[in-house]
């Protein structure tokens, strides 16, 4: 501690405390850097038997790795998956364990080798200021300026420069325009606003496609509903896209429980307590699938928006802002449930021109 | 070879004799690789366990490429519909599904080792993002982003964002119910963007959601565009790291003008290679033993079903939580007939925008309020920068609250709590939590700094009580050794900015004063409360109480032998 009484300014810090030190407070009186701590020898540095032991451990770990690789190949050959989930799991486990032993063997061996047998003396190397210094810097500046002068753009030919940058900025358009023109299909974004429900389309069970008779819907039951269509159509891409908009959740409540629905004055969009609402959440479009019979609440499992089916599917909790659009329904001559029309408003999440 | 001298001719004077030597000579005569070997073979790298975090990210990326290559051999990125002909799993036999989903089933059940590679790939992606985040935390809290490493911090941030993009595009490829609903949420978010939303949705899906273009498009992004940019930026990240030389933790002999550590050859090469195999080994173990993303349980994408308790991969949880927390009522505005959905824009665009902006601008803000233009190569101890550490913990608190909110349904079902109550708690915590975390962390840092001062001034408590001849009792304090002390006194403690006065000598208002004033206010926020490092004079003053002369004389003797003589006293 004797140096404390007689503090010396630290030479290395003296250099860095330049004007660019800004508002770092650097007291004139500082402790001196004690320097890199002394090297402490390891057991393997002093005891040859320990070194020998470490060498054997490392060798053993490499051998273990080889055994792991062999084990993995043996597992590949001898334990083919028999097709059941359990069989696949077993094959995965055995090949994977072999691979893991093979890799971990090498990893642990390498690190043990480095830590016990390779030199552990710390070295000190100087850093150089990153900014180019002295003559190199001056040469660089001179070369740069000469190059600019040679190019003939310095200080004149504004039109030339404008044309040059203009051409560079514009040429990607020749690729971008055809790309963007086609990448969005027909760009007919108004199709968000309509679904395939039409006047008279029968409500059918998802996924079987069987139409639903009003008399089959008991009070309290929930139906996942799709529009009735042909089997061929239901195996096409168009169907997946149409279904994404058209899915409906249908519930039968006690007519006295049904406080309101979305039908305007003088019309009815429900049938004897049966109401059908779009299943696509008005928040970001998840299927709203969790229905709680007691409270008549419909919960979206993605972000917990909760809608009250008995009260025109209005939002009672969560991040959704709008109620679920109602599908107006009635029954046809044969007693099947049918749509009166398409939804009165676009289903699903909001978008800019939704109400246009 | 290394004995080449200037006055000899082209041939190396000493002919290599060993096989390795001959090979090296062959290569050197054609590529002058000797220059690179001279530069890098014994290049010194500082050592610390936390420097390994970035390595883990790098190595899990390598594992992603290896396992990803395996998967591309069997995956078919097509949304054409097919009936699954495979016998296994039985539940999927004869189902209508996309070719992408069918090929995922096929590679899981028919390709030996296929499921293993799928699971390794998925786990690697999770570990890749986790190690990036933890590596960033190390860089942030130790101030490694300061000059000259601001550019590398930005490169690192871009790598993290690309990692998110890689994860997102890969997650959606199997075309299962879970990832399909994830895409649908993305579609909902994209549609909420003012003016362009619907068109961006069409741009992504090639028409209406889901269409039949999205899987091949995501595939191209996932295996070509994103990893290509990732590779280029990783190369830049490492190049800058080598060029600027790695930072080092503070300690004896370590300054901003040197680098103290072990040579690349052999220690670093061995440790890094070993670490690669360890990371790969652990990922293989995870892939072998821990099932992940069993898509056959979810089934092929169908717009109707959805499973409760579904979670995105962990690095997307904060966005999911953000969406869940936003109250919906009254947040959808209709302006001149156009719809503006704040309930989606705020959580999905504004919140992540703020989080990422903070990360992008922080190094520059801090440099400005510190008025610091020096090169920094010695890391800060987090306690020595209380405001920075506090802000970092506040940021993490916000991130964690959002991520937990993304699992609010699981928390509700596991602990039997009301989901509405949990959501409300998280809504409040999102605002209160970071402020609280900032203030507590900052206080803890200041406390630790004061503790450091105490230690330097008075030494360690030894627990030994000594009675003086005059009857006075003191506790013996062992002085810190030089290294311990140096660690605690060797730091800068910046003061708040000082600015030029509002008016000049002749009373004319100065331009730019208002801006200076704002920066000063921010600087005060950072550096108002400071604990300065102990100076030798202060130690001397602390020792000068009481038996000063006697203490000074006997200081050099070892504590135990010297008994009461070496003590400094608790004041």
TrEMBL record, chain A:
<keyword id="KW-1015">Disulfide bond</keyword>
<dbReference type="GO" id="GO:0005886">
    <property type="term" value="C:plasma membrane"/>
</dbReference>
<feature type="transmembrane region" description="Helical">
    <location>
        <begin position="58"/>
        <end position="79"/>
    </location>
</feature>
<comment type="function">
    <text>Iron-sulfur subunit of the cytochrome bc1 complex, an essential component of the respiratory electron transport chain required for ATP synthesis. The bc1 complex catalyzes the oxidation of menaquinol and the reduction of cytochrome c in the respiratory chain. The bc1 complex operates through a Q-cycle mechanism that couples electron transfer to generation of the proton gradient that drives ATP synthesis.</text>
</comment>
<keyword id="KW-0812">Transmembrane</keyword>
<feature type="region of interest" description="Disordered">
    <location>
        <begin position="1"/>
        <end position="49"/>
    </location>
</feature>
<keyword id="KW-1003">Cell membrane</keyword>
<keyword id="KW-0408">Iron</keyword>
<feature type="transmembrane region" description="Helical">
    <location>
        <begin position="163"/>
        <end position="184"/>
    </location>
</feature>
<dbReference type="Pfam" id="PF19297">
    <property type="entry name" value="QcrA_N"/>
</dbReference>
<keyword id="KW-1133">Transmembrane helix</keyword>
<dbReference type="GO" id="GO:0051537">
    <property type="term" value="F:2 iron, 2 sulfur cluster binding"/>
</dbReference>
<keyword id="KW-0479">Metal-binding</keyword>
<protein>
    <recommendedName>
        <fullName>Cytochrome bc1 complex Rieske iron-sulfur subunit</fullName>
    </recommendedName>
</protein>
<keyword id="KW-0472">Membrane</keyword>
<dbReference type="GO" id="GO:0004497">
    <property type="term" value="F:monooxygenase activity"/>
</dbReference>
<dbReference type="GO" id="GO:0016705">
    <property type="term" value="F:oxidoreductase activity, acting on paired donors, with incorporation or reduction of molecular oxygen"/>
</dbReference>
<feature type="domain" description="Rieske">
    <location>
        <begin position="245"/>
        <end position="338"/>
    </location>
</feature>
<dbReference type="InterPro" id="IPR036922">
    <property type="entry name" value="Rieske_2Fe-2S_sf"/>
</dbReference>
<dbReference type="Pfam" id="PF00355">
    <property type="entry name" value="Rieske"/>
</dbReference>
<keyword id="KW-0411">Iron-sulfur</keyword>
<keyword id="KW-0679">Respiratory chain</keyword>
From TrEMBL, chain B:
<feature type="compositionally biased region" description="Basic and acidic residues">
    <location>
        <begin position="544"/>
        <end position="559"/>
    </location>
</feature>
<keyword id="KW-0472">Membrane</keyword>
<feature type="transmembrane region" description="Helical">
    <location>
        <begin position="51"/>
        <end position="75"/>
    </location>
</feature>
<keyword id="KW-0813">Transport</keyword>
<dbReference type="GO" id="GO:0005886">
    <property type="term" value="C:plasma membrane"/>
</dbReference>
<feature type="transmembrane region" description="Helical">
    <location>
        <begin position="417"/>
        <end position="441"/>
    </location>
</feature>
<keyword id="KW-0812">Transmembrane</keyword>
<feature type="region of interest" description="Disordered">
    <location>
        <begin position="1"/>
        <end position="20"/>
    </location>
</feature>
<feature type="transmembrane region" description="Helical">
    <location>
        <begin position="219"/>
        <end position="243"/>
    </location>
</feature>
<keyword id="KW-0479">Metal-binding</keyword>
<keyword id="KW-1133">Transmembrane helix</keyword>
<dbReference type="InterPro" id="IPR005798">
    <property type="entry name" value="Cyt_b/b6_C"/>
</dbReference>
<keyword id="KW-0249">Electron transport</keyword>
<dbReference type="GO" id="GO:0016491">
    <property type="term" value="F:oxidoreductase activity"/>
</dbReference>
<keyword id="KW-1003">Cell membrane</keyword>
<dbReference type="GO" id="GO:0046872">
    <property type="term" value="F:metal ion binding"/>
</dbReference>
<feature type="domain" description="Cytochrome b/b6 C-terminal region profile">
    <location>
        <begin position="251"/>
        <end position="447"/>
    </location>
</feature>
<keyword id="KW-0408">Iron</keyword>
<feature type="transmembrane region" description="Helical">
    <location>
        <begin position="276"/>
        <end position="296"/>
    </location>
</feature>
<dbReference type="GO" id="GO:0008121">
    <property type="term" value="F:quinol-cytochrome-c reductase activity"/>
</dbReference>
<feature type="transmembrane region" description="Helical">
    <location>
        <begin position="153"/>
        <end position="173"/>
    </location>
</feature>
<keyword id="KW-1278">Translocase</keyword>
């Amino acid at each position: 501690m004797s140096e404390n009484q007689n503090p010396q300014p630290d030479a290395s810090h003296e250099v860095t405390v330049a004007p660019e030190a800004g508002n770092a407070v650097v007291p004139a009186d500082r402790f001196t850097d004690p320097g890199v701590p002394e090297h402490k020898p390891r057991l393997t540095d002093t005891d040859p038997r320990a070194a020998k032991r470490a060498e054997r451990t490392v060798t053993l770990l490499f051998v273990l790795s080889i055994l792991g690789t062999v084990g993995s190949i043996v597992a590949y050959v001898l334990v083919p998956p028999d097709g059941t989930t359990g069989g696949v799991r077993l094959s995965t486990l055995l090949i994977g364990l072999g691979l893991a032993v093979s890799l971990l063997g090498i990893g642990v061996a390498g690190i043990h080798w480095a830590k016990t047998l390779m030199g552990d003396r710390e070295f000190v190397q100087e850093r150089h200021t990153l900014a180019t210094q002295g003559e190199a810097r001056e040469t660089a500046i001179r070369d740069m300026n000469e190059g600019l002068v040679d190019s003939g753009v310095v200080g004149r030919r504004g039109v030339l420069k404008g044309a040059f940058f203009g051409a560079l900025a514009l040429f990607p358009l020749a690729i971008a325009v055809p790309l963007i023109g086609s990448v969005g299909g027909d760009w007919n974004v108004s199709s968000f606003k309509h679904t395939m429900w039409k006047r008279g389309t029968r409500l059918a069970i998802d996924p079987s496609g069987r139409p639903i008779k009003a008399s089959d819907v008991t009070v309290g039951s929930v139906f996942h509903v799709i529009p009735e269509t042909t089997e061929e159509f239901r195996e096409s891409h168009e169907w997946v896209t149409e279904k994404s908009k058209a899915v409906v959740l249908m519930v039968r409540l006690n007519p006295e429980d049904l406080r309101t629905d979305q039908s305007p004055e003088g019309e009815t969009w429900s049938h004897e307590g049966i109401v059908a609402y779009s299943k696509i959440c008005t928040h970001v479009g998840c299927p709203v699938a969790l229905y709680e019979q007691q409270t008549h609440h419909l919960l979206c499992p993605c972000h917990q928006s909760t809608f009250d089916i008995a009260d025109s599917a209005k939002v009672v909790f969560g991040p959704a802002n709008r109620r679920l659009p109602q599908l107006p329904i009635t029954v046809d001559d044969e007693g099947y449930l049918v749509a009166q029309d398409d939804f009165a408003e676009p289903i699903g999440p909001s978008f800019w021109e939704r109400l246009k | 070879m290394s004995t080449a001298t200037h006055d000899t001719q082209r041939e190396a004077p000493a002919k290599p004799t060993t096989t390795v030597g001959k090979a090296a000579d062959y290569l050197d005569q054609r590529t002058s690789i000797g220059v690179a070997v001279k530069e890098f073979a014994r290049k010194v790298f500082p050592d610390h366990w936390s420097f390994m975090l970035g390595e883990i990210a790098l190595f899990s990326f390598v594992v992603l490429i290896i396992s990803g290559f395996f998967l591309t051999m069997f995956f078919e990125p097509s949304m054409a519909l097919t009936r699954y002909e495979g016998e296994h799993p039985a539940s999927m036999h004869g189902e209508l599904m996309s070719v992408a989903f069918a090929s995922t089933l096929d590679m899981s059940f028919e390709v030996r080792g296929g499921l293993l590679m799928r699971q390794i790939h998925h786990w690697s992606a999770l570990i890749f993002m986790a190690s990036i985040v933890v590596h960033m935390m190390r860089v942030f809290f130790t101030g490694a982003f300061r000059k000259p490493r601001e550019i590398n911090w930005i490169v690192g941030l871009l790598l993290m964002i690309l990692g998110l993009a890689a994860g997102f595009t890969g997650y959606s490829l199997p075309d299962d119910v879970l990832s399909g609903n994830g895409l649908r949420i993305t579609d909902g978010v994209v549609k909420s963007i003012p003016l362009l939303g619907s068109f961006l949705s069409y741009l992504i899906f090639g028409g209406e959601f889901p269409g039949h273009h999205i899987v091949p498009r995501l595939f191209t992004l996932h295996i070509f565009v994103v990893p290509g940019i990732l590779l280029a930026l990783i190369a830049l990240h490492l190049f800058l790291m080598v060029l600027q030389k790695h930072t080092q933790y503070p300690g004896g002999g370590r300054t901003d003008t040197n680098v103290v550590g072990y040579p690349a050859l052999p220690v670093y090469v061995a440790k890094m290679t070993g670490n690669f195999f360890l990371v790969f080994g652990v990922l293989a173990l995870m892939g072998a033993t821990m099932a992940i993303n069993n898509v056959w349980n979810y089934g092929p994408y169908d717009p109707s079903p959805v499973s409760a308790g579904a979670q995105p991969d962990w690095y997307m949880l904060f966005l999911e939580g953000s969406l869940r927390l936003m109250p919906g009522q009254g947040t959808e505005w209709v302006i001149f007939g156009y719809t503006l959905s704040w309930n989606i824009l705020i959580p999905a665009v504004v919140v992540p925008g703020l989080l990422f902006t903070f990360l992008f601008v922080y190094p520059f803000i801090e440099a400005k309020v510190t008025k610091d233009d020096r090169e920094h190569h010695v890391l800060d101890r987090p306690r020595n920068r209380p405001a920075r550490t506090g802000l970092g913990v506040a940021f993490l608190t916000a991130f964690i609250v959002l991520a937990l909110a993304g699992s609010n349904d699981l928390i509700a079902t596991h602990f039997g709590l009301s989901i509405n109550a949990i959501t409300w708690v998280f809504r409040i915590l999102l605002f209160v939590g970071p402020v609280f975390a900032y203030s507590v962390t900052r206080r803890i840092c200041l406390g630790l700094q004061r503790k450091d001062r105490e230690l330097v001034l008075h030494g360690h408590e030894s627990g030994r009580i000594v009675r003086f001849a005059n009857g006075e009792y003191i506790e013996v304090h062992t002085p810190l050794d030089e290294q311990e002390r140096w660690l605690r006194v060797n730091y800068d403690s910046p003061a708040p900015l000082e600015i030029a006065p509002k008016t000049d000598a002749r009373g004319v208002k100065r331009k730019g004063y208002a801006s200076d004033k704002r920066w000063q206010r921010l600087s005060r926020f950072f550096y108002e409360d400071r604990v300065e490092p102990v100076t030798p004079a202060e130690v001397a003053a602390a020792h000068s109480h009481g038996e000063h002369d006697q203490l000074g004389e006997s200081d050099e003797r070892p504590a135990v032998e010297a008994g009461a003589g070496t003590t400094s006293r608790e004041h």
